């Protein structure tokens, strides 16, 4: 009587035992018999010596941008977050349209949303509101503000003027009178100055005095061109002319 090696049987150990009977492979796998062994060829989506393990397609994290992966046999699906699409949630859905931003605003696409950059003079999440320049109450002294695009206009009450009604008309009158008063006395001063210059030049026939006066007049009046210096020089020369005329 023969004592057979593993995998064989029969009186003379002539028969190879079929290790695939019954089929040890699970999940539809195909069995290939060997000597005292077998090999399983698994269907797609399964693995392991007996094809008992399902392959987890979500293990490689195929879903992008925070999508949720659901595993199936030899496949998977991605449930995308709002704002994304595609098999693997790889595409950002464009949210900007021609009507997203009003009044010429510029639309910037974001994840599941957008933002508007408004032109000057407009505001709001969709640039739908015109900025009211009168909200800051720019008109002073009881002026009435009228809003316009990127500007405003003040209607001033009686007695005030200026783009913000900030100037009292009495102040204008005061400074106008003051200006013409100073102008009048300055002209008078020049007249008296040149009168005394001519007087002393003719009377005293002094070339030295003529030269000195001409030097000061040309230097301060022509070169510096300052009204304040006109007046100071005029009073200064008159003072000394009158002073010396009294003494001598």
UniProtKB/TrEMBL annotation:
Tell me the superkingdom of the source.
Answer: Eukaryota
Q: Name one Pfam family in it.
A: EGF
**SUPFAM superfamilies referenced in this protein's UniProt entry, alphabetically:** EGF/Laminin, Growth factor receptor domain
List membrane-spanning regions: 172-193, 200-222, 228-247
The keyword Nuclease belongs to this UniProt entry's keyword annotation: no
Q: Tell me the InterPro entries matching this sequence.
A: EGF, EGF-like_Ca-bd_dom, EGF-like_CS, EGF-type_Asp/Asn_hydroxyl_site, EGF_Ca-bd_CS, Growth_fac_rcpt_cys_sf, Notch_Cell-Fate_Det
Q: Which GO terms describe its biological process?
A: cell differentiation; establishment or maintenance of epithelial cell apical/basal polarity; heterophilic cell-cell adhesion via plasma membrane cell adhesion molecules; system development
- Detail the disulphide connectivity of this chain as listed in its UniProt entry: 4-13, 42-51, 80-89, 118-127, 156-165
- Molecular-function GO term, any one: calcium ion binding
Any idea where the EGF-like domain is? 1-14, 16-52, 54-90, 92-128, 130-166
Q: Name one GO cellular component term.
A: plasma membrane
UniProt keywords, alphabetically: Developmental protein, Differentiation, Disulfide bond, EGF-like domain, Glycoprotein, Membrane, Repeat, Signal, Transmembrane, Transmembrane helix
* Name this protein carries in UniProt: EGF-like domain-containing protein
Species annotation = Oncorhynchus mykiss
Its lineage opens with:
Eukaryota, Metazoa, Chordata, Craniata, Vertebrata
């Amino acid at each position: 009587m023969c004592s057979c090696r593993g995998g064989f049987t029969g009186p003379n150990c002539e028969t190879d035992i079929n290790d695939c009977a019954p089929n040890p492979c699970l999940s539809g796998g195909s069995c290939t018999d060997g000597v005292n062994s077998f090999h399983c060829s698994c269907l797609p989506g399964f693995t392991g010596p007996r094809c008992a393990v399902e392959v987890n397609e979500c293990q490689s994290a195929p879903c992008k941008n925070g999508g949720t992966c659901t595993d199936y046999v030899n496949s998977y699906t991605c449930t995308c977050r709002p704002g994304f699409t595609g098999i693997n949630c790889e595409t950002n859905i464009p949210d900007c349209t021609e009507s997203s931003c009003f009044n010429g605003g510029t639309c910037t696409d974001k994840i599941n949303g957008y933002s508007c950059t408004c032109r000057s003079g407009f505001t709001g999440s969709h640039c739908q509101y015109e900025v009211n320049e009168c909200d800051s109450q720019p008109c002073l002294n009881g002026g009435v503000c009228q809003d316009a695009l990127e500007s405003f206009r003040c209607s001033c009450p009686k007695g005030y003027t200026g783009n913000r009604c900030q100037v009292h008309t009495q102040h204008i009158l005061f400074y106008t009178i003051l200006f013409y008063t100073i102008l009048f006395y300055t002209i008078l001063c020049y007249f008296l100055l040149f009168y005394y210059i001519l007087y002393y030049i003719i009377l005293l026939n002094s070339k030295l005095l003529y030269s000195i006066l001409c030097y000061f007049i040309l230097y301060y009046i022509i070169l510096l061109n300052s009204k304040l210096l006109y007046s100071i020089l005029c009073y200064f020369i008159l003072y000394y002319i009158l002073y010396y005329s009294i003494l001598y």
